[in-house]
Amino acid sequence: AEQVHRLPANASFAQGAAMGTPYATAYRGLFQRADAKPGETVLVHGASGGVGTAAVQLARSQGMRVFGTAGSDEGRRLARDQGAHEMFDHRAPDQFEQIMKATGGRGVDVIVELLANVNLGKDLTILAKGGRVAIIGSRGRVEIDPRDMMQRDVDLRGMVMPNTPPEELASIHAALVAGLENGTLRPVIGKEFPLAEAAEAHRAVMEPGAFGKIVLVTGKYEG
After folding, report:
1. The Cα angle at residue 71 between residues 77 and 139, in degrees rounded to 5
2. How many CB atoms lie within 10 A of CB 206?
3. What is the CATH number of the domain that holds 97?
4. Total structural domains within the chain
5. At what angle do helices 13-27 and 166-182 cross, to 10 degrees?
6. Over the stretch 60-81, which tens digit does the pLDDT of each residue have?
7. Cβ(110)–Cβ(83) under 8 Å?
8. Residue 153 resides in a domain
9. Which strand (E) or helix (H) includes residue 158?
10. What is the pTM assigned to this prediction?
């Protein structure tokens, strides 16, 4: 019962379904783990996905300069629509050089990392002094150079939602409900599938370049 909450009147059931895990994950990564603050520069990898769009909206709503990466023009447009100031092609071989140049050589303060096994080694080279990486996702092992951390006094901060203390969950819920009610948070629905097509929905989640959240809907497609 502690995890059941009333849906704000201005939010659809699909938005409510898309809100929980991705927005809670993005909020905890940004604010409770990486301690992101207004005025800082935040880089969101995979900014067109469910957690990515949530992180972009949350960071922008708190007065941060928001960078993002995505692999398609459509994905980059979507992230800009959610509030990203600048977007970069994560398929470009010089994406990290482009990001560093966009900061004037200073580096970014916070990175929301959704694919650490691919990006983490390079992430450490574009952080500002005192920068933090919130590691939210990884699909394998990675090798890093600890000297990149030492030279910039940077921190790596891992997380999984089941470790969240009750008091932090309460803070997350209050912040997300307020964002839904005042319109600063707007879950992006990529596709809706009837429950009978759950297998196809799972395949859609794994497709490269998937946008927003995939939502399973009961009843809507019946009859």
Report:
1. 130
2. 8
3. 3.40.50.720
4. 1
5. 130
6. 999 999 999 999 999 999 999 9
7. no
8. yes
9. strand 155-158
10. 0.90
